[in-house]
Design a protein that fits this description.
This protein is of the alpha/beta class and 385 residues long. It has helices at residues 14-26, 92-101, 103-112, 139-153, 165-176, 196-212, 216-226, 229-232, 241-251, 255-266, 293-302, 320-323, 329-337, and strands at 30-33, 58-64, 67-74, 81-85, 114-118, 158-163, 181-187, 281-287, 308-313. The protein has a 9-stranded mixed beta sheet with strand order 1-9-8-7-6-4-5-3-2, with helices on both faces. α1 packs antiparallel against α13, α4 crosses α5 and α6 packs antiparallel against α10. The longest helix has 17 residues, at 196-212. The radius of gyration is 20 Å and the shape is globular. The chain starts with 13 loop residues before the first helix and ends in a 48-residue tail after the last helix. The chain crosses the membrane at residues 152-175. InterPro entries: AB_hydrolase_fold, NDRG. Belongs to the NDRG family. One of its GO terms (molecular function) is hydrolase activity.
C-alpha cells in the first residue's frame, strides 16, 4: 500500500506515558488531556538528509468530477503521504507556514513524509474567480475531491492534517474512505452542525463576502476565528506580525471563492455519531482561547479513547499551526512513533535527527521566552487494562 508504514506492536499505553514524560521533563507549556492509544513503533534510528528536501513545491491543478483543485507537493513522492487542508479563506501558505518554519517540525515532517497541500477550490495562490454558473459544492463533494487527488497521485493510504473547516473535511473523508486514512492530526476541529449562533454569524459573513468582497469587517471576523485576542492586539497591544501577514494574505483571496467554501461549511451535517467507528488514530490540538474549543472537546468525547489524544494549548486561538507551532512538536513526535515512522535509538542518534535533544529549540524548555504565563500542567489519563 503506497505511503503505509509498518505496524509493529509494543506494550499498550506506551505512547501516552512517553508523551506525558516528555512534556513534564521539557516544561512544555500546554495543558494535555490524554486518552489511551494502542501503540506501535519501530527500531530504526533516523538520520536527516537535507538534500532530499524539495526546495520549492510542485504545483498541480487536478480536474475532478467536482471541478479543479490545486495541490502543492513538497518532498520525495516515494515517501508516505501527508495530506493537509486549511481553514476557511486560507491556503497552505497562510495556514501551515508557521509550523513548517519551525525547524524541528519541518525536519520531522519532511523526513518522514511527502506533503500534499490541498487548497479548497479557488483558494490557491493566484486563483481566479470560479465561474458563477458552477454549482456550490457540499462538504461531501469536497471530501470526494480528496479521494480523486489520491487517485491522481496513486496514493492508497495517507496521513491527514487539517485546521478547523479543513479538519472537518478530512474527518468526513476518513469516515467515507476508511481504508485510505492512516491517521488524523486535527487542529481546532469541527464535527457538529453549526449552532444557531455560528450559522447566523456565518450568514452575515457570507452576505458581506457576496456583496462587498473581502472587506474590513470580514477580515476582522476571520482573524477572530483564527487567533487569540493577545496577538490580535488592541488599543494597548500592537497587532502581531503573524496577524499582519495573515491580513495581507486575506487581501489576495477571491471573495466569491471564499463565499463558496463558507456556504459548504455552514451547511455541514453533524458527524459526531460516526466518529467512534473510525479505526485510525487521531491527535487533536486546540487552543484554549479558540471559539471552537468546546467543539474539539465534544469531538474527543465521541472518538474511541483507545486511539485518540487531545492537546489543549494555553493562551492560543484556533490556528495553533501559526500561533504556537512549537506546541505541536513533541505530541506529533510521539504520535508518529505509533506508526513506526520514528524511534530514537540510544546507541545511534544522528545529530541531525529531528528528535535529537540537541536539535530541540530552547523555546521548548522556556515558556517564559515565548511570552507565555507558565501554568501547571494538568493531565487526565484514561486507561483500559
Amino acid at each position: 500500500m503506497a505511503g503505509e508504514a509498518p505496524n509493529k506492536q509494543v506494550p499498550r499505553h506506551g505512547i501516552v506515558a512517553s508523551i506525558q514524560n516528555a512534556i513534564l521533563h521539557s516544561r512544555f507549556h500546554s495543558r494535555i488531556t490524554f486518552h489511551s492509544m494502542a501503540d506501535s513503533t519501530s527500531s530504526d534510528s533516523l538520520s536527516l538528509d537535507i538534500d532530499s528536501f524539495s526546495p520549492s513545491p510542485q504545483e498541480h491543478i487536478i480536474r475532478t468530477r467536482h471541478g479543479s483543485i490545486s495541490v502543492s507537493v513538497y518532498g520525495d513522492q516515494d515517501k508516505p503521504a501527508l495530506i493537509t487542508y486549511p481553514d476557511l479563506a486560507l491556503n497552505y501558505v497562510s495556514c501551515f507556514q508557521g509550523l513548517l518554519f519551525c525547524p524541528e517540525a519541518y525536519y520531522l515532517l519532511l523526513h518522514n513524509f511527502c506533503i500534499y497541500h490541498i487548497s479548497p477550490p479557488g483558494h490557491e495562490l493566484g486563483a481566479v474567480p470560479i465561474d458563477s454558473d458552477y454549482p456550490v459544492l457540499s462538504v461531501d463533494d469536497l471530501a470526494d475531491q480528496i479521494a480523486e487527488v489520491l487517485n491522481f497521485f496513486g496514493l492508497s493510504a495517507v496521513m491527514c492534517m487539517g485546521v478547523t473547516a479543513g479538519a472537518y473535511v478530512l474527518t468526513l473523508f476518513a469516515m467515507k474512505y476508511r481504508q485510505r486514512v492512516l491517521g488524523l492530526i486535527l487542529v481546532s476541529p469541527l464535527c457538529k452542525e453549526p449552532s444557531w449562533a455560528e450559522w447566523l454569524y456565518n450568514k452575515v459573513m457570507s452576505n458581506l463576502l457576496y456583496f462587498y468582497g473581502m472587506c474590513g469587517v470580514v477580515k476582522e471576523i476571520l482573524l477572530k476565528r483564527y487567533f487569540s485576542k493577545e496577538i490580535r492586539g488592541g488599543t494597548q497591544l500592537p497587532e502581531s506580525d503573524i496577524v499582519k501577514a495573515c491580513r495581507r494574505l486575506l487581501d489576495e483571496r477571491q471573495s466569491l471563492n471564499v463565499w463558496r467554501f463558507l456556504e459548504a461549511i455552514n451547511g455541514r451535517p453533524d458527524i459526531s455519531e460516526g466518529l467512534r467507528k473510525l479505526q485510525c488514530r487521531s491527535l487533536i490540538f486546540v487552543g484554549d482561547m479558540s471559539p471552537f474549543h468546546s467543539e474539539a472537546l465534544h469531538m474527543t468525547s465521541k472518538l474511541d479513547r483507545r486511539f485518540s489524544a487531545l492537546v489543549e494549548v494555553q493562551a492560543c486561538g484556533s490556528m495553533v499551526t501559526e500561533e504556537q507551532p512549537h506546541a505541536m512538536l513533541i505530541p506529533m513526535e510521539y504520535f508518529l512513533m505509533g506508526y513506526g515512522l520514528y524511534k530514537p535509538s540510544k546507541l545511534s542518534v544522528s545529530p541531525r535527527s529531528p528528535l535529537s535533544p540537541s536539535c530541540i529549540s530552547p523555546e521548548l524548555y522556556s515558556p517564559e521566552s515565548m511570552g507565555l504565563k507558565l501554568k501547571p500542567i494538568k493531565t487526565r489519563i484514561s486507561l483500559k487494562i
